């Protein structure tokens, strides 16, 4: 049984001088020479990290130890560059994407490169996807919003439709969380509360705006962190759709009718939560995701899937690898 992790991050070796293409608060990697490092944002220390984030040899060793056969490798969201002027952001994405390809080339067949794009400009984003696909990227990793523009925004929807037409899988990750000013500095609440809310907001924005009606059904789209709070609150959303015309104004079907339009990863950390997620989405729509190598991720990849007694052998095998094989079109 092949084990494929669809949610694993990289911060490739990028010096501060290279990162200055983005301007102020540029993200760069400071290595300490002892297997540890620091993600930097300009002069500010952002987060301490270990070599598995940037060193492909350390990454593959960790995969071997954990029994992971393949990782889909996506940039750390700090690298998105959505605040930059579009042309600068396009140059930045090309640099990051080349480095991700270089990283994954150290273990071909084990590491699947996902590109990033300058999502603040839909034309440049679509152009970047084309270049990245031709260069060997197997999917695209995007944030769930650009400023106040969420996936129901016309240009955002146009980009997703472009990815559908190009056959490019999309991994959507929450970032720059709402309400962060109320939670900052308190127990990592932006990650514990804001991420789930961001993902719920993104999914419902696509559904209730009618965007899924305008995007080809061929789109392969996966939301991280188990789809956030979507599965748990789906009953509330359906109830609102049935009882309030303002909720169903642009969506011809209730939210529960759209669960066949996207995937989610398995990063919910509790077999009871995974059971609900599978009941809501179907086992064919859930894929193993660990958030490697960050400590808020699943430190024993696949442990929640294996511990979920509600899953049969076929469902467990699908979640651990079979679904991702189809999602990424792997042989």
UniProtKB/TrEMBL annotation:
InterPro entries noted in UniProt: ACMSD (IPR032465), Amidohydro-rel (IPR006680), Metal_Hydrolase (IPR032466)
Domain called Amidohydrolase-related: residue spans: 4-330
SUPFAM superfamilies tied to this protein: Metallo-dependent hydrolases
EC number, UniProt record: 4.1.1.45
PANTHER family: 2-AMINO-3-CARBOXYLMUCONATE-6-SEMIALDEHYDE DECARBOXYLASE (PTHR21240), 2-AMINO-3-CARBOXYMUCONATE-6-SEMIALDEHYDE DECARBOXYLASE (PTHR21240:SF27)
Protein family according to the UniProt entry: Belongs to the metallo-dependent hydrolases superfamily. ACMSD family.
Protein name: 2-amino-3-carboxymuconate-6-semialdehyde decarboxylase
Biological classification of the source: Bacteria, Bacillati, Actinomycetota, Actinomycetes, Streptosporangiales
